[in-house]
Design a protein that fits this description.
The chain has about 575 residues and is an all-beta fold. The chain has three helices and 42 strands. Strands 14-13-16-17-18-19 form a six-stranded antiparallel sheet, with no helix packed on it. Strands 5, 6, 8, 9 and 10 form a five-stranded antiparallel sheet that branches.
């Protein structure tokens, strides 16, 4: 027996676990993806088997996709199992997952803690996944058309936009080797005429799905049927059902209903409800989108999208280089034998005007201790359409008890902050979004954070971010090495420079650079816009906008019925 620090007796076989100085990482890490279930398994660290019961594991991972990146996440925390399954979002496009397996040894009896981590691994689930077989399969005997229809009405496609081929295998009960294989591209229906079958033979069939990367699913269960002198029975493993589906149920096929369109950047998603037909006709319906794009850059020919699909939605991607696009489209519906058709009315939309903007991506916090600045930047942004203009909103939140949030608007994807505008040793959180000219705002970027370590800066007492105020303290000092600068004694401050104007209808936005002052004093500066404009009596009056503004831009709304004579930028609270 062995006594630990609190006097408990433990088996001598477990006491040596306290002598492990380094915990090896897990080994033989591998992953498999079945549909959108991403499974990771591994072997435990190479330590004594008696100590493995003190090991706990967790997965540290991040998902990248063209639909948006996720934050770093944990899965299967504190598990003792040697496997972990992560459920992926099938709506993500082009998924890449990066992960590692972390192990920790916590022996509370010995107050002993060790950690280890495997290398990072990378996988592409949406490319390497194993599909699942189609579902809701049945055999339909059509006595009028003298045909047998093998169909599976449902299939989990696992990932948005995945394309499949479907295999139907037909065999005879009196022969184990005579099997026919039918390959169908995108269709889950196989029609076989009575003339191709022997009425005296009992048949069975099953199906599978196959992805574009040639990975085939497991087989469905087997389904039996037979033909006996114009009488048919259908068996779904043990349930017998007979179905007669005359095609007359599909006569007078109406158009698809409730057509809706959603425009996300250059991706357009159409959705609709199927025609009001008998439920027995539904498995025989197929759809497509017929559309054309008119643009000042050139019109396209009429095109088809999602042709002969059994789904009630379709997605297309537009060319963002076309200027002023107008999209005209309609939904086509027909039966799979093309005997019955219907078309919806033509619809019209303007993607360049009505689209939802995409959020900025690849956002980072860059701290420069030499220049004493923090740069908040987003390296990428899909502008969607040629010539589209954006403003970028930055939201900065203090991580302390005050929890104040500051809002900045810029015409570029960068925001520069001085150390003297921030609190040292305080965690700041920030995110960004894009706003297009019609004030539609994108989703937020992924949340970022940063903290300025006071050990690496000479600043003694940092101030907070500037807040609107009408007076400045009589003595405002900032320490820069051995020199002190009195910002209250600065007279006749220089004017703002590099003034730029952007206008859009009644919106006018001004941008400028601050005056040439010591940067320690810039946080004490506030601006206001003074301009001369006509009133309802057409007389000129002095007006003000963006008063007590600490930002270096101003968004003004001007009535287009009134003229603006001149605009000046006033600098306040200096001296």
């Amino acid at each position: 027996m062995y006594l630990n620090k609190i006097g408990k007796s433990l088996p001598l076989a477990e006491s040596h676990c306290n002598n492990i100085a380094i915990l090896p990482s897990v080994t033989f890490v591998k992953s498999t993806t079945k549909c959108n279930k991403f499974k990771i398994d591994w072997n435990p660290p190479a330590i004594d088997a008696d100590c493995l019961k003190f090991i706990r594991y967790q997965i540290y991972y991040k998902i990248y996709s063209s639909s948006g990146d996720s934050d770093l996440k944990f899965a299967c925390q504190d598990t003792s199992q040697l496997e972990c399954t992560i459920q992926l979002d099938g709506r993500l496009i082009g998924v890449t997952i990066i992960y590692k397996v972390m192990a920790k040894m916590t022996n509370q009896a010995f107050n002993h803690r060790l950690n280890s981590s495997s290398p990072y691994y990378r996988s592409w689930p949406s490319m390497t996944f194993i599909p699942i077989p189609p579902q809701n399969c049945q055999t339909i005997i059509d006595l009028n058309q003298k045909s047998v229809t093998l169909t599976c009405s449902k299939h989990n496609r696992c990932y948005y936009g995945s394309s499949y081929s479907y295999y139907f295998y037909l065999g005879r009960r009196d022969s184990n080797t005579q099997i026919q294989k039918f390959s169908l591209n995108g269709k889950r229906i196989k029609v076989i005429q009575f003339s191709q079958l022997n009425a005296k033979v009992n048949y069975y069939w099953y199906a599978s799905s196959k992805t574009y990367s040639n990975r085939e699913s497991n087989f469905t269960p087997q389904f039996n049927f037979s033909l006996h002198s114009s009488m048919a029975t259908t068996e779904v493993p043990t349930t017998v059902a007979t179905k007669d589906v005359p095609r007359s149920h599909c006569n007078n096929l109406e158009a698809a209903k409730n057509l809706k369109v959603k425009i996300d950047c250059t991706r357009i998603t159409f959705t609709w409800d199927p025609p009001a037909v008998d439920s027995s006709c539904q498995p025989f319906l197929q759809y497509g989108i017929y559309y054309r794009i008119y643009s000042a850059s050139g019109n396209t020919d009429w095109k088809y999208a999602c042709n002969k699909t059994s789904h009630t939605q379709c997605q297309i991607t537009l060319d963002g280089r076309k200027i002023g696009s107008t999209l005209v489209y309609q939904v086509l519906a027909s039966t799979i034998d093309n005997r019955h058709h219907s078309t919806s009315a033509f619809y019209r939309t303007w993607p360049n005007m009505l689209y939802e903007p995409a959020p900025p991506k690849e956002c980072r916090s860059l701290i420069d201790y030499k220049k004493e600045t923090v740069k908040l930047t987003c390296y990428q942004h899909d502008r969607c359409y040629y010539g589209a203009s954006y403003h970028y909103h930055f939201f900065l939140s203090e991580g302390n008890k005050s929890g104040r949030t500051f809002h900045f608007i810029r015409d570029v994807r960068n925001l520069f902050l001085k150390f003297d505008e921030l609190q040292l040793d305080t965690t700041y959180h920030w995110l960004a979004s894009a706003m297009k000219y019609d004030n539609k705002v994108s989703d937020n970027s992924t949340l970022q954070q940063f903290k300025i370590d006071s050990l690496h800066t000479s600043q003694a007492k940092p101030t907070t971010l500037p807040t609107p105020q009408t007076t400045i303290p009589s003595q405002t000092y900032f320490t820069t090495g051995k020199q002190k600068i009195d910002c209250s004694q600065l007279k006749n401050a220089p004017a703002a420079t590099n003034i730029r104007v952007k206008s859009n209808c009644t919106h006018v936005q001004l941008f400028w650079r601050p005056p040439s002052l010591a940067y320690q004093c810039l946080s004490s500066i506030q601006y206001q816009i003074k301009y001369i404009s006509t009133d309802q009596e057409n007389s000129f009056k002095v007006k003000y906008d963006c008063q007590s503004n600490s930002n270096r831009d101003c968004l003004m709304t001007v009535d287009n019925k009134h003229a603006v004579r001149s605009v000046t930028i006033d600098i306040m609270n200096v001296g």
